[in-house]
Amino acid sequence: MKRNPLSRLAWLAAVAMLFPAITLANPATKTSAMPATAHKWGATAHRIDVNTGTREELMTLPGIDGAAADKIIEGRPWKNSQSLVEKNVLTKADFAKLKSRITARHMPAPAKTK
Fold first, then answer.
1. Of 25, 30, 62, 101, which has the highest C-beta tally within 10 A?
2. Concatenated DSSP letters for 46-81?
3. Whole-number Å distance between alpha carbons of 48 and 103
4. Domain count across the chain
């Protein structure tokens, strides 16, 4: 049986109309609401900088209380986040829990005045 060119066109039109409905109904193709950076660092997209974070921000980290936050602030600037263990501010176990949630960006040196 020879197909009519119009029947092919009808099939293409039907597929074109149904294709968006099929792809939108498939839950595997829905995009995630999480930003791309969240996947890179785990569940948290935002790292707290130990050189610039406020006391309140530092205290949101698990295992960091007011005293530990004060020690972090007093020891600034930190060369890197590992320095917190080297200077006995955090234990190795506490640092292992926090290392994906903290960073230590280098702060620019203050401008020299004449």
1. 101
2. -PEETTT--HHHHHTSTT--HHHHHHHHHTPSPSST
3. 6
4. 1
- Whole-number Å distance between alpha carbons of 83 and 40: 23
Provide the whole-model pTM: 0.56
* pLDDT tens digits along 86-100: 999 999 999 999 999
For the segment 92-114, the average pLDDT, to the nearest whole number, is 83
d(CA 45, CA 61): 14
Which domain covers residue 42, as residue numbers?
37-103
Q: Are 104 and 98 in contact (CB under 8 A)?
A: no
Residues 6+ apart with CB under 8 A from 69: 55, 58, 59
